[in-house]
Amino acid sequence: MMMRRQTKLNLFEQLSDLLKKGETELFRESLLALHIQDQVEWFEQLDDITLRKQVYEALTPEEMADMLEELETEEQQSVMEEMEREKWISTLNEMASDDVVDYLEELEDDDVSTALQEMDDETAEKVQQIMEYDDETAGALMATEYIAIKTTDTVQQVMSRLRDEAPEAETIYYIYVIDQDGYLVGVVSLRDLITSDPSEVIEQVMSRRVVSVQTNQDQEDVARLIQKYDFLATPVVNDEHQLVGIITVDDIIDVIEDETTEDFGEMSAVRGATGTDITAWESTKKRAPWIIMLMFLGLITAEVIGYFEDTLQTIVILAAFIPLLMDAAGNTGTQSLAVMVRNIALGTFDKRNVWQVLRRELLTGIMIGAGSGVTIALLIILFYEQNYVIAAIVGISIMLTLSVSTLTGSIIPLIINRLKIDPAVASGPFITTLNDIFGLLIYFTIATSMIEYLM
Known about the structure:
Layout: H1 2-21, H2 24-32, H3 36-44, H4 49-58, H5 61-68, H6 73-82, H7 85-94, H8 97-104, H9 109-118, H10 121-131, H11 138-141, E1 148-150, H12 155-165, E2 174-178, E3 184-189, H13 190-195, H14 202-205, E4 213-214, H15 219-229, E5 233-237, E6 243-248, H16 249-267, H17 280-307, H18 309-314, H19 322-346, H20 354-383, H21 388-418, H22 428-449
Parallel strand pairs: 1-2, 4-5
Antiparallel strand pairs: 2-3, 5-6
Helix pairs in contact: 1-2, 5-7, 8-10, 15-16, 17-22, 19-21, 19-22, 20-21, 21-22
Function: Acts as a magnesium transporter.
Keywords: CBS domain, Cell membrane, Magnesium, Membrane, Metal-binding, Transmembrane, Transmembrane helix, Transport
Subcellular location: Cell membrane; Membrane
């Protein structure tokens, strides 16, 4: 492994040396022989602006497009700013339409309009078509570079066409079949074409069991569908069921990453503040509202403690176990929250099993609570001069609190999801604060009812 890494570093150094020596043809041959990801890795570590500009001159717009499609949007912007305008526009024309959209959406409106006017009419039209769809929908995610064939075509005609058009298509593993009016009617795999008689008509070869998505369908639903069927791509149709684009699995991987990051941000109350490129002020604006809201909820916790002030003054030792109780409640509730949000995100819930899952979580909480309660009660007896009453109060409180915490962490995401809100907004800090309140109420209610045995 170390040797392979060293070999790659040596190769990268050779590429840079070829550029410095002006050996353009040998540089092109060496670079393009690499896997596209290795090309990108080499380019990303190239800090010298002079050498980077030499790369732009040495590569064709199509070759630059292949590399740029693998870069993050921020890196694409840096590259485009360094390139000459004519080369920049030519490169945009060669990129996949969905990648062009991702790039243009980061520009100012005036810059977008100017770029579209300078691009090829056909490419600009495809890009504008995608940009009309709402964010995070299948239409906004799709690419329009696909190959569609007619039911009346022969296998031989299709194979001949693939030789000419395949380099421009997003994928050719699946070829979608449309009728005379552009309606999606079937799908043919590349393997089906290769193994079929060249004279056969596509209508006899194709499968009519084609699974598609609507342009306005949420990207998370598309991700679940592709995951369910193990597709490499899925067709996108409009309201009239006409084929308008395709979504490939590499785009879905990006969606899953983005949705996971978003859910993580929701659950930890830092939505939109997880990126490494945002400023401290931007991070503060996104996180402060949650903290302030949780502070107000924390006042309820303080009120609960204040309400049972007499109990605390009478039996001061009860205060020693408040942090333990609150931590246990928050941790258990957050675990249940994570389980429920994950199941909701994967779409594994239906009306038949939701009660089964809730019952399982409650039983889990009871068993964890019982085990934790017995354990802490024994420790209190051992270390607190065999104070059986305190042990009973804390043990029973732990058992009931953890049972309630698992139920709270399970039910709240379901309620929020039923209200058509992202269940991840039932964030960890929110659940934790809520369970703190319930835990303290349980703890002090039990302690107050047993205070006569502590005197």
